[in-house]
Amino acid sequence: MSELIPDINRSVESVFPYQLQYSQSNTPAMQARGDLIRNTIPGLFRKAAESNRIPNVSLIPDLFIEGSDGKGNKNYVPWVRFASESLSPSARIGWYITFLFSTDGSSVWLVIAHASTSEGGKSISKEVRQKLKEWGLSKLPSLNDIDTELSASIDLNSGGPGLGDKFESTSLFGFQFKQGNVPSTTRILEKINLLLPHLKTLYDAELNDPSMPSAEPIELKAAEEVIDEIAGKVPKARKYSGQGTRGTYEERRAIERRAVDLAIEYFGSTNDWETIKDTGSNQSYDLLLTNKNKKLYVEVKGTQSRGEKVFLTKNEVKVHKKFYPNNALFVVSGIKLIKGDLLIASGGEIRVIYPWKIKDSNLIAMAYEYEVPEP
């Protein structure tokens, strides 16, 4: 096949000299690099996708292509990525296929990677990055089964400042294209096309496996879906797959019941309380523990996720701020659901925070009620 879009490999090669002229400031060299990364290369890839040169883009209905060389200060490692608009709306969220240019201009890597920073811009911890990598690799075939040219070790020569080492640590595997030997446009597009089904596998797994490190818990996804629907928007997961992630009422109820049962068992085993009352059906707290001297108000949260985040209602926050320090948060994470004729919730790891002081800095608003001013 002739090169219908001949400029991709030449445009990629054009980035390398600018890496050797790196500056945090927007120098003429950085302006030229930025135009290639933000405009030229993504534009050529979009044109290739539109002309069916990358047929597997159809596997991800909301796929988009973007590039960045840094906002404000310039990045040591500029990138161009392919991602789901709903599951990875920014490079700080989720999985994507990305081109990462080495800091010394020696090569560019085409990798499948996960975001290495959070939405707030903080680096994800080394432990979580390692767990993300292990999780991602567990969902995909071995490297040799995908392509024998893939490498598990990504080297961006990232000795200087910037996020190069973080990018390396969250990259599952990739192809290295060396300066002066970047393959043809056709070959580049073939490699992207090869990786796209595996990106889809990760997206599907993310939606269905609540154990993914740093994943948004199903309970929060469910709340986001309801909020989006009320606001007249299509929920994020539905943009990608056409289906929501809310789970059934019975499933949510089984998870909640498992957590409450474990909480009752836990507090009962301490012999510190004369009565333990399940109040979840009529109060904004789940358990009321009493003895002769005091009361303890307990909020119980059960989740299939790792329990890094939980959903709180406005009333729950209000009540537990009021009752502090006579309150506790009881979280059961990693609950397993066995589906059959009977729905069974089992397992779970317990974490107790007592007393539980709710800090405003730990609360993230998911929606607002807005009073429209009078005209």
Instruction: Walk across the major sheet and give the strand order.
Output: 1-2-3-4-5
| End-to-end Cα distance | 64 Å
CATH class of the largest domain: Alpha Beta
Largest sheet: 5 strands, antiparallel
CATH H-level name of the largest domain... which superfamily? Protein of unknown function DUF1054
β-sheet strand percentage: 15-25%
What is the gyration radius calculated from CA atoms?
25 Å
Low-confidence stretches: none
Based on Cα principal axes, name the global outline: elongated
Report the CATH architecture of the largest domain: 2-Layer Sandwich
The CATH topology assignment of the largest domain is BirA Bifunctional Protein, domain 2
Give the domain tally. 3
Explain what this protein looks like in three dimensions.
With 375 residues, this protein is of the alpha+beta class. It folds into three domains: 7-208, Protein of unknown function DUF1054 (BirA Bifunctional Protein, domain 2); 216-246; 249-362, Trna Endonuclease, Chain: A, domain 1, CATH 3.40.1350. The chain has helices spanning 7-19, 28-50, 126-138, 143-146, 164-169, 185-208, 218-230, 236-241, 249-269, 314-323, and strands spanning 63-68, 79-84, 95-101, 107-114, 171-178, 275-278, 287-290, 295-302, 327-333, 336-338, 344-346, 349-353. The strands form three sheets. It has a five-stranded antiparallel β-sheet with strand order 1-2-3-4-5. α1 packs antiparallel against α2. The protein is elongated and about 80 Å long. The chain starts with 6 loop residues before the first helix and ends in a 22-residue tail after the last strand.
